[in-house]
Specification:
Structural class: alpha+beta
Strand content: 15-25%
Oligomer: single chain
Largest sheet: 3 strands, antiparallel
Number of strands: 5
Length: 128
Amino acid sequence: MKIRDFRVAHWYTGAAHNGPSHARPVRRRDTSFLSFRARIPADIVDATKGQAIALAFPAEAGEPEHVALVRPGREVKFSLRIRNPAVAKSRRGIALAQLETRWNAIRSSPKPLTHRQIIALSGEVCWP
């Protein structure tokens, strides 16, 4: 009997490759509302801690509009204030799009201007 060699494949990184977030909204045990939960990318966790983020959701399928105010830590979690799974899935997509826009804005934070750029923006200076 020959024993096979069980080595880790050369492409294995040691990280879980489940994508950026869950496949569907989650439901907590103590409420009937569906919730949103997503991790914040590691490169911007420190920049987002303590900031308040407002996420706006339009009215759809007879459900009222909703604004969620979130203070993220290592993850963003809030109630979608909806029981309908189809509308919750739609709101989850809206939330992911708004958060991704926010993360990209944080990553491309303001950069200092060079002297040449400052002069170009100032325009022509007229001395009296």
